[in-house]
Every structure is written in structure tokens, then in C-alpha cells.
Automatic annotation (TrEMBL):
PROSITE patterns: TONB_DEPENDENT_REC_3. It comes from Flavobacterium restrictum. The keyword Membrane applies. Residues 413-842 form the TonB-dependent receptor-like beta-barrel domain. Belongs to the TonB-dependent receptor family. Keywords: Cell outer membrane, Membrane, Receptor, TonB box, Transmembrane, Transmembrane beta strand, Transport. GO terms for cellular component: cell outer membrane. This is TonB-dependent receptor. Pfam families: CarbopepD_reg_2, Plug, TonB_dep_Rec_b-barrel. InterPro entries: Beta-barrel_TonB, Beta-barrel_TonB_sf, CarboxyPept-like_regulatory, Plug_dom, Plug_dom_sf, TonB-dep_rcpt-like. Gene3D superfamilies: TonB-dependent receptor, beta-barrel domain (2.40.170.20), TonB-dependent receptor, plug domain (2.170.130.10). The keyword Membrane applies.
Length: 882
């Protein structure tokens, strides 16, 4: 009888389901965590179909079912999958946390599609930018990562030509060109800019993260381990992967802020709109962003203006301990029809304006083929400032044009274009991804408020100084398969890549470069022009297997062949062992490489630089130039590296996670830009070198060379804890990085012409840029409390000691460690509208003031180290979402 009853009940439900099939039904609901906080980006699908949608910023979703009583399957990274019967038209679905609340499945570090950040054999940080961006004081990707990733550092530079307009960044204290940037897992092109103004990353070419609007990014994955064997050149320090937004809905944000000194005003406006395409997981997501940042001025003392100019004694009163320095007399200036700004130094952050757009889409063509595309455009205008030319500098200043001297302006236009397009195929159990990625960065220079002294009164005061550009195109094919039944899971991936690159320098107008050129930034001349190409071919294989339920082992190998310097083979071995369910041990060993960029091989120019306290014209020369050959400068070759890491993962509680990773990175034949050759170690001219360089229109010269070997040792610690507190949720996080870079005492292959001048060829200044210019220690402690309509963020970040040697001349100075406090308060007026008030560097902390010898006669009050020279920044933000 019971058996008959069971059969009858089953038959009844089958009948009901059959009769209801084809009757479309709309269901609405909200996805919540265990504390009732809405969860966005959850995937809600109807079991037995390919219909799915995503929850919006308020956790809400709407789905149309062909079944009257469907089973809804809800998945979200870090949460247990839920299956819920869709009996009611409006339903709340509570998502319980998995054992690891930080259990995001990641793209980098492992090609296994089922590995979370805590299960990989190497450390991976995940920043859920879509969730936290509205409550952080920072708006650019560089600034956000500086405060969220312990081993990432970036700060703005001043009076540094193009480097003022693209902030150099470093991971684990290495160069901007030793970290690979991906977008949706595809290689991103670098900028066309070479950092050569003795800033962090001197002589390197990085990737401009600020060319991608932060409002278009869903999350950022930072792989903190060498990965050249997996991803190719540049991945010596690690990989940063930007995963773009794919959600449906609309969001708008407006932010306005200013520093405590009433400058550096920022305006950020961004719009993001996403929609589903079809019923099989297709989507389109579009972002538009406008960002304007005004200049800041942090000069030492705006009264310190002029030297040895008796003609100006009526306007100046003696001041300071230097008898040659005069201080401004405002009354006398006004009587003469002058103003203080006619004489002031402008030292600080450049003015930057960005207009950007980005799109991310995926369109299923059928059950087995998806088309996808990701791309954008960024148009940036920047205004920076060079060293002020004083009226007393009669060899630089045309008095009839600038009777009070002048401070040159460097105006840039940076255009960045990119497009990723491809197809994903399902071939049985195999997956094939074929793509093409193209990107270009173009940097155009205009110089204003300056003169070409050689042209006298006929000199223009504005010059078109030329441009440089870099184009990269990558064709990629990746094949992968996951074998569930082999061992405890085996993932096999292999692929091939073809990459072509083009680098160009184009000359400016004649007046910008002739006979010494425009003061501060002489334009590129026809002799500087470059149009060079190269290509490379790479193949790789990557195998990762759970040998047992406890032991994971990965092996990767990559072969690359470059048309301009040869080939290389690199490998990686990684492993992770689960000692218990809550305690893992992980580690990796790998070899790596970085190909010399086309920029480093062919960039050349003439610029005004501070050399041993003097403003001189200095040239950067190509390694294939006649002057390089005369001096015995060798041809560039690739950098090679060996990476070692071992780490621990410990989760003693369900919501407490602790990771600690030790690492060592050895780099041989590291490419550097030499010091200004032409003076000896005491700053005195070397006649034979000066005579040689004079034939090229400069006093000193610099070259790219594989001069050094370095060793980097360090540790990263990340602690994250979620807890219920009252009616809300409190997240506590502690991040710490210790990093020690050391340059080997012996330089590589010093040319005979510079034996005995090692401290000029690669001197204390260049050495300190690598060894001590980024903090050895950096730590962050943050508390984020969400309760009902409120959200509170309090974050303290410690930037450790920085030691600078000889910039722009002078002596060694140690800058003590500092703590920066961030505070934001957010309130949801309605479920759709949120207001945020807050501050970055609430307590107005600055680096130590520079000693006089390092401050260019007292002008540079602060060095651009640690937290930079902005000081306290206060902001207000309004967010609206649908």
C-alpha cells in the first residue's frame, strides 16, 4: 500500500510539471547572506535549463521560468550552492558561507577552473572592487591597490616629465615592468613611456592601470609569485589580473574631494550599465568615467625665488640663512604691477583629466560557441611643471619674453586604446579559447611657458615637442580539460601565442629641438625618430592535479622565441598539501625571464636634468648608436630570474583566515639606466667624455644596460576575520609585507671607458632607487562594520622607512616610517541611494621634510615617497543603483 502511495505521489508531481511546462512564470527575489545583507553578482539559474540571471547591487533578481514550479540553483563564490523550489512569486534566499569565506575562484595562479584563492599552491589576493569601491577614499586603481595589497606600492612623482602623468607602480619592490597585467586573463599592453627621471622604476616601462576605469572592474586578482612559465615575459614579480564587470543593472557615482590645503580638487563621475543578452548567459556591460584632478603645490617656501639679482632689490627683502636668497615683498610687488605667482615654484602633483569608456560582453552563438569582446578608450590630458628658470639664469632665459623668469609647463595628451575579442568553444570535454588582443598607447608632448634661448626674442613660448607610441597585438589559443576521475582531479592546459609589437618616436616642430631646444623638455628631433618592430612566438603546457585529496601538484613549462634577441625556456613546479582541513602548506619554485622592451632598446632623447646640482642637457642614447659603440656599451639581453616561495594557510575558525608566504627572487642581468656619464664621482667634468657628448649636443649621456644582479627576500602576511557584532557584520583585516632588495656588489661587464667610475655608471642614487626607495615594511589594519543602512571603514596603513641617496643631488637621508589613517562613513538613504563622507590621510601625515642639501635649494619640501605629498584629502560621494 505504501509503495502504491509513493508511486501515486510521484506520478502526481510529474503530471503537474508536465502540464505546467511552457507556461512562463516570472519570479522575483533577493539574495542575502546569513546576516540579511544583500549579495550582488550571485548567479540564479533554473535547474534543467540554460536560463540564468545575476543579482544586482541590492541582491535583487527577476527570472522568467518556463516551468510553473521551478527549482532555482543559486551560486556565488565563497558561498555554498543553494537549491530552492520556486513556489512563491517573491522569495528571499539566504546564502550560507562555505568553510572559506574568501573562497573566490580565481583565474590567475591556476588554470584549474575549480580552485579558490586559498586552495592555490601560490598566494593570490582578490580585491572585490565592485563591492568596496563606493566606500574607499581612493578612486584610481593604483591608489586602491596601494592600500589593499601589502606588497604593492605606487606614488605620484613631481617635476618628472611624463612620469608625472603615469604613476609608476611596483610589486614586491621590483620594477613596474616586472609585473604582468592581464585583463580578463589576456595580456595587456604597456605604455609607450620610459621612466627616466630618477624615480621609482627608473629605466622601466610599466602598464598604465589608470587607463582602465576602476568603475568598470569587478575584481582584481594579484598573483604574488613568479609566473613567466605560465604567462610569459614580465611576470617575474607576479601578475595583476583585472576581471571586468559582467552584471546587469545600472549604477552611477559622483565623488568630489579636496586636500586640507584647498588644492588637488578631484571630481569623479562614472556610469555603469549592464544587461543580459538572450537566455544562455550572454551579457553586455558598459562603463563611462570622467575624472579631473587639479594640481597641488608642496614647494618648500614660495618666498625663495631669486639669486644674485640686484635689479630686483626693490621687490625683494633679504631672508633665510642664504645671503643670496631674497624673499618677496608683497607691497613692492603690487606697486610694480607684479604678483607673487610670477615668481613662485610649482612643486607637487600634476593636473590630470581623464575621459574613459569601457565595454565587456559575451554572446552565446549556440550551445557550444560563445563570442566575447572587451575593450576601451582612455583620453588623458596632463599638466606638469619643470624646474623654474630664474632671471639670473641669463643663459636660459630670454629676458624680453620672461623678465621675471619662468617655470615651464609640460602638457601631455595620452591616448590608450584596447580591444580583446575571441571565441570559446566546447568540444566535448575539451575547452578551446581563441582570441586576439590589440592595444596602443600614444603619448604626445606640448611644452608651454618656456623659450628656446637660441632663438632669442623670436622664440615661441609654446612648442609641439613630438610623441611616442607603442602598439601590441597578441593572437592566443588556449586548450584545457578537467579530468574529474584521474587521481582526485586533473587539469590539463596547453596553448600557443604569437605577439607582434611596434614602437615609434616622432619628431616635434623644429623650434622645439633646434640648438638646445625648448627649456625643460627639448622636443624629439628627426635624429631621435624610431619605427621598430619585433615579434615573438610562445608555446606552453600547464598540468595541475590533486594527486590525493590532500596533495596538489602543478607543473608548467613555456618556450618563447623573440625575433630580436633569441629564445628562452622556463619552468615552474608548485605544490600544496593539506595537513588538516584547516591547515595547508604550499610552495613553488620557478625560473623566469623578461625580454628587454623595444622602448629600452630604442628610446633616445635630450632632456634637461639635474646633474650634480647643475641643470644640464643630458642625452639618453640607443645601444646600437655610434656613441654607444665608441664607449663599448653592450647590446641588451633578457633578464633571467629564479623564484622560490613557501607559505602557510590556516583557518582555525570558519570565518578566520591566515596566510603567510616567504619568498626569494633572484634576478640576473637586470636592465638599468645608467647615471649621467660625463662627470666623475665627485661631480667634476671628465673632459674626454664631455667632448664626445658635445658632438651630440649634450653635456652628459645615459644608456640602458644589463648592469646588475639583485636578490629580493620577503614575507607577506594576510589575516581576515568576519564576525557578527550586534545587528551588523564586522570585518577585520591585517596585511603586512616585509621586502628587502639587494644589489650585488659586483657590476656586470663594465665597459673599459668607465672602469674606476662605477659610482657614476651605477651610483648610490641608482642603487637606492632599487634597494631603499620603497618601504621595506608596510602594514595595514582595517575594520569595516556594516549595520543596517550604515557602513563604517577605519583603516590604518603603516609605510616603513625609506632611504634616499643623492636626489637630485646632496646626501643620504632616512625618512622615518609613518601611519596614514583612512575613515569613511556611508549611509543608504534608500535601497538605491547611498551617501559617503570620508578622508584619506585623515591626520594630514607627510613624509619627513627633505634636508636642505637634497631639496634643490630648499624648493622641494617633501620627497615623493611612502604616502606621497598630498596630505589629508577629504571627499563626499553619492551612489545610485538600479
Amino acid at each position: 500500500m505504501k509503495k502504491i502511495l509513493k508511486i501515486s505521489i510521484a506520478a502526481f508531481f510529474i503530471l503537474i510539471s508536465t502540464l505546467s511546462f511552457g507556461q512562463n512564470r516570472k519570479l522575483k527575489g533577493t539574495i542575502l547572506n546569513e546576516k540579511g545583507i544583500p549579495l550582488d553578482h550571485a548567479t540564479i539559474s533554473i535547474k534543467g535549463t540554460k536560463i540564468n540571471v545575476s543579482s544586482d547591487n541590492l541582491g535583487k533578481f527577476t527570472i522568467v521560468s518556463p516551468v510553473k514550479i521551478p527549482t532555482l540553483v543559486v551560486t556565488l563564490y565563497g558561498y555554498s550552492t543553494r537549491e530552492v523550489m520556486g513556489i512563491e512569486d517573491n522569495i528571499n534566499i539566504i546564502m550560507p558561507l562555505e568553510a572559506n569565506s574568501l573562497d573566490e575562484v580565481v583565474i590567475v595562479g591556476s588554470r584549474n577552473p575549480k580552485k579558490s584563492k586559498l586552495e592555490t599552491a601560490v598566494p593570490v589576493d582578490v580585491v572585490n572592487l565592485a563591492k568596496i569601491r563606493n566606500i574607499t577614499p581612493q578612486t584610481s586603481t593604483n591608489d586602491i591597490l596601494t592600500y589593499l595589497i601589502p606588497s604593492f606600492n605606487s606614488n605620484r612623482q613631481s617635476s618628472a616629465d611624463g612620469t608625472e602623468h603615469i604613476d609608476p607602480a611596483s610589486l614586491r619592490g621590483l620594477g613596474p615592468d616586472q609585473v604582468l597585467v592581464l585583463v580578463n586573463g589576456k595580456r595587456r599592453h604597456t605604455t609607450s613611456l620610459v621612466n627616466y627621471q630618477n624615480t621609482v622604476g627608473n629605466g622601466s616601462v610599466g602598464t598604465d592601470l589608470s587607463a582602465i576605469p576602476a568603475s568598470a572592474i569587478k575584481r582584481i586578482e594579484v598573483l604574488r609569485d613568479g609566473a613567466a612559465a605560465q604567462y610569459g615575459s614580465d611576470a617575474i614579480a607576479g601578475v595583476i589580473n583585472l576581471v571586468m564587470k559582467d552584471n546587469a543593472g545600472f549604477e552611477a557615482n559622483a565623488t568630489y574631494g579636496s586636500t586640507s590645503r584647498n588644492d588637488g580638487q578631484t571630481t569623479n563621475l562614472n556610469l555603469n550599465y549592464g544587461a543580459k543578452i538572450g537566455k544562455n548567459g550572454g551579457f553586455v556591460n558598459v562603463t563611462a568615467e570622467f575624472n579631473n584632478r587639479e594640481k597641488t603645490n608642496r614647494s618648500q617656501n614660495n618666498n625663495l625665488i631669486i639669486f644674485d639679482q640686484s635689479a630686483y632689490d626693490n621687490y625683494f627683502a633679504y631672508d633665510f640663512s642664504n645671503d643670496n636668497a631674497r624673499g618677496l615683498d608683497d607691497a613692492a610687488l603690487a606697486q610694480a604691477g607684479l604678483k607673487r605667482d610670477d615668481f613662485n615654484f610649482q612643486i607637487g602633483d600634476a593636473k590630470i583629466k581623464n575621459i574613459q569608456g569601457f565595454v565587456n560582453l559575451s554572446v552565446p552563438l549556440n550551445d557550444k560557441i560563445d563570442f566575447y569582446a572587451t575593450g576601451g578608450v582612455s583620453h588623458r590630458n596632463g599638466t606638469g611643471f619643470g624646474f623654474r628658470r630664474l632671471p639670473s639664469e641669463t643663459e636660459n632665459v630670454v629676458a624680453s619674453l620672461f623678465p621675471n623668469g619662468f617655470q615651464p609647463e609640460l602638457n601631455s595628451v595620452v591616448t590608450d586604446l584596447s580591444l580583446i575579442s575571441g571565441f570559446k568553444f566546447k568540444l566535448g570535454d575539451w575547452k578551446l579559447d581563441v582570441s586576439n588582443t590589440i592595444g596602443q598607447n600614444k603619448f604626445t608632448y606640448d611644452v608651454a611657458n618656456t623659450n628656446n634661448f637660441s632663438l632669442g626674442a623670436n622664440s615661441p613660448t609654446e612648442f609641439k615637442a613630438g610623441n611616442h607610441s607603442f602598439l601590441q597585438n597578441t593572437v592566443n589559443a588556449d586548450v584545457s580539460r578537467f579530468y574529474k576521475s584521474v587521481f582526485s582531479g586533473l587539469n590539463v592546459a596547453f596553448g600557443a601565442e604569437y605577439r607582434s609589437e611596434n614602437y615609434q618616436i616622432n619628431a616635434g616642430e623644429v623650434a622645439s629641438y633646434s640648438n638646445g631646444g625648448a627649456q625643460s623638455f627639448p622636443g624629439f628631433s628627426p635624429l631621435n625618430e624610431v619605427n621598430k618592430n619585433r615579434n615573438s612566438v610562445g608555446i606552453y603546457a600547464d598540468v595541475e592535479s590533486d594527486i590525493t585529496e590532500k596533495l596538489l601538484v602543478g607543473v608548467a613549462a613555456r618556450y618563447e622565441d623573440y625575433s630580436d634577441f633569441g629564445n628562452t625556456i622556463n619552468g615552474k613546479l608548485s605544490a600544496r598539501y593539506k595537513v588538516t582541513d584547516t591547515f595547508f602548506v604550499r610552495g613553488a619554485v620557478s625560473t623566469g625571464f623578461r625580454a628587454p622592451s623595444l622602448h629600452q632598446q630604442y628610446f633616445n632623447n635630450i632632456a634637461t636634468d639635474v646633474v650634480d646640482g647643475e641643470l644640464l642637457n643630458s642625452g639618453i642614447f640607443r645601444n646600437d648608436s655610434d656613441v654607444a659603440k665608441q664607449l663599448g656599451i653592450p647590446k641588451l639581453k633578457e633578464e633571467t630570474s629564479k623564484n622560490y616561495s613557501i607559505g602557510l594557510v590556516f583557518s582555525p575558525l570558519k570565518k578566520l583566515h591566515i596566510t603567510a608566504d616567504f619568498y626569494q627572487i633572484k634576478i640576473d642581468n637586470r636592465i638599468i639606466l645608467t647615471g649621467n656619464l660625463g662627470n666623475d664621482a665627485y661631480g667634476d667634468p671628465v673632459p674626454e667624455l664631455r667632448a664626445l657628448f658635445a658632438t651630440y649636443g649634450v653635456e652628459t649621456g645615459r644608456f640602458f644596460t644589463n648592469a646588475i644582479n639583485t636578490t629580493t627576500n620577503g614575507i607577506d602576511v594576510v589575516v581576515d576575520y568576519d564576525m557578527n557584532l550586534g545587528a551588523g557584520n564586522l570585518n577585520l583585516s591585517a596585511l603586512y609585507n616585509y621586502n628587502h632588495n639587494q644589489v650585488a656588489a659586483q657590476l656586470n661587464a663594465i665597459p673599459t671607458a668607465f672602469v674606476g667610475q662605477e659610482d657614476v655608471y651605477y651610483g648610490p642614487q641608482e642603487r637606492s632607487l632599487i634597494e631603499t626607495n620603497t618601504p621595506k615594511s608596510k602594514g595595514t589594519f582595517a575594520a569595516n562594520y556594516a549595520v543596517k543602512k550604515w557602513n563604517f571603514l577605519l583603516r590604518n596603513t603603516y609605510f616603513g622607512t625609506v632611504t634616499r641617496d643623492g636626489f637630485p643631488f646632496g646626501t643620504t637621508q632616512k625618512h622615518a616610517g609613518k601611519v596614514v589613517t583612512d575613515l569613511t562613513i556611508a549611509y543608504k538613504v534608500t535601497p538605491k541611494i547611498q551617501f559617503t563622507l570620508g578622508a584619506n590621510n585623515l591626520l594630514d601625515v607627510f613624509p619627513d621634510k627633505q634636508i636642505y642639501e637634497n631639496s634643490y635649494f630648499g624648493v622641494f619640501k617633501y620627497a615623493p615617497v611612502q604616502m606621497g605629498t598630498t596630505g589629508a584629502y577629504y571627499f563626499a560621494r553619492m551612489s545610485f543603483s538600479l
